[in-house]
Amino acid sequence: xxxxxxxxxxxxxxxxxxxxxxxxxxxxxxxxxxxxxxxxxxxxxxxxxxxxxxxxxxxxxxxxxxxxxxxxxxxxxxxxxxxxxxxxxxxxxxxxxxxxxxxxxxxxxxxxxxxxxxxxxxxxxxxxxxxxxxxxxxxxxxx
Length: 143
Known about the structure:
Layout: H1 2-29, H2 44-114, H3 127-137
Helix pairs in contact: 1-2
């Protein structure tokens, strides 16, 4: 009878550990990382539960890294978008300035083309020579 009691106790202990390991593995398989895995024994089933606990911790750590990376990407993409908007505004302003300059050049070209042609006549003026001669004729003074 004592042997039957020990066998029953061992069977219940094994079934409980196997059931707990099965439940834990099933929850991890569907992505439930909040599962709290506790080791109930120091045997192979306890080792299995410890391995499941370590796997759960590894998954949580990996998820934290992915979450932090996605936040960094989100921030960087916002900065790129802001920079693109700023560049677009400045490009539009430069385009407007260039169009205004082109219109002014067209008006200037039109005005020059519609003006009557004029000839530039070159005349010699005796004045510069006279001024040179009069300066050369003056005596040099020392004070």
